[in-house]
Amino acid sequence: MSVGLGLDHKLIVTVVNKGRAKKVVAASRKAGAEGGTIILGRGTGIHEAQKLFGICIDPEKEIVFTLIESKKAEEVLSAIVDAGQLCTPGYGIAFVMGTKQIAGIAHLLKSNL
């Protein structure tokens, strides 16, 4: 098994309203990311309470995972914030997490040998 130890990468997690993830991924790619993974979720924040005929509607969200070299993280995060309009209340959130071990990126592991 090939696991990357000591690779200097960050994980950017972005949560946006359904339909906005493609813009986030496109902006992150333009800023230097290789791509992203999009999964569906459901929001429960203060801006999520919506009712239709007295029935609560669970707003659908898209979560984007972007693995990025640490040196590119700030630029990619800035592009994500702009594309997702994350400075607007209720539009979403993004945060950066450190990584300790990474598997499944064999193309990066080979180039670092």
Please, could you describe this protein's structure?
The chain has a single domain, classed as Alpha-Beta Plaits (2-Layer Sandwich). Helix 1 (21-30) crosses helix 2. It has 113 residues and is of the alpha+beta class. It is elongated. It contains three helices and eight strands. The strands form three sheets. Strands 3-6-2-7 form a four-stranded antiparallel beta sheet, with helices on one face. A two-stranded antiparallel sheet has the order 1-8. The protein has a two-stranded antiparallel ribbon with strand order 4-5. Helices cover 27% and strands 39% of the residues.
Summary?
By secondary structure, the chain is of the alpha+beta class. It has helices at 21-30, 70-84, 106-111, and strands at 3-5, 9-17, 37-42, 50-52, 55-57, 60-69, 92-98, 101-103. It has three helices and eight strands.
Structural features:
113 residues; alpha+beta; Alpha-Beta Plaits
Strand content: 35-45%
- What structural class do helix, strand and pairing data support? alpha+beta
The profile of the biggest β sheet is: 4 strands, antiparallel
Architecture (CATH level 2) name: 2-Layer Sandwich
The total beta strand count reads 8
Computed Rg: 16 Å
- What is the number of helical segments per DSSP (H or I, 4+ residues)? 3
Q: Walk across the major sheet and give the strand order.
A: 3-6-2-7
Low-confidence stretches: none
The general outline is elongated
- Proportion of residues in helical segments: 25-40%
Task: Please report the distance between the alpha carbons of the first and last residues.
Answer: 15 Å
Average predicted confidence as pLDDT: 83
Number of domains: 1
Oligomer: single chain
SSE pattern: EEHEEEEHEEH
Q: What's the CATH class, please?
A: Alpha Beta
